[in-house]
Amino acid sequence: MRRVAPVVWIPGMGYETGAPTSVCGNMEPEHKGVTPQTNASPYTIAVSNSTFQTGKPITVVIGGSNYKGVLLQARSASSKEALGTWGTTPANTKYLQCSGIAQGAITHSNSNTKNNLTVFTWNPPSTTNSIYFVATIAKDANVYWLNVKSEMLTRGENYFTKQKVLMNLISKCIVIHWQKHRNKTPVQHNKGFTLH
């Protein structure tokens, strides 16, 4: 007699092999009959730095008790689009294409246990100056939390700060040039023109 392997559901994220791309935007469950928890999430999203720079990865860890399902993205405060790319996926996880980015999100690849030893790496883009991480986290097949967020991260000194310094320098150069030009303008006195 042929045995058939059971199909396991992880709520909000499709089958046990991970979230489908259809939930990239709202990160909400598609499994009918199961609703998200309304109490405060026991999970937190910890990051390695409160600032980011293009070319310098950020380490991300989900703290709390063990979990089985996850959908994790980086976003800006003004959009639901996934930002940046994720580095090498930890065991029991995989990439999910979101917002047209092949490595735009991370999801579970099976229902094996994940914990705070499951470390994710995110690579910042060059197109935004602030982001946060957001996740849907499933403890098991019937218990999960939506909209678990990290602190807001802001861009560090790599691009925007350098641009600001450059603009300040240009402004100072313009002022100095203007002052020198002004000092060479002829000024009329009673006895003719003199140069200052």
Automatic annotation (TrEMBL):
InterPro entries: Ferric-chelate_Red/DefProt, Reeler_dom, Reeler_sf. GO terms for cellular component: membrane. Pfam families: Reeler (PF02014). Residues 9-168 form the Reelin domain. Belongs to the FRRS1 family. This is Reelin domain-containing protein. It comes from Electrophorus electricus (Electric eel).
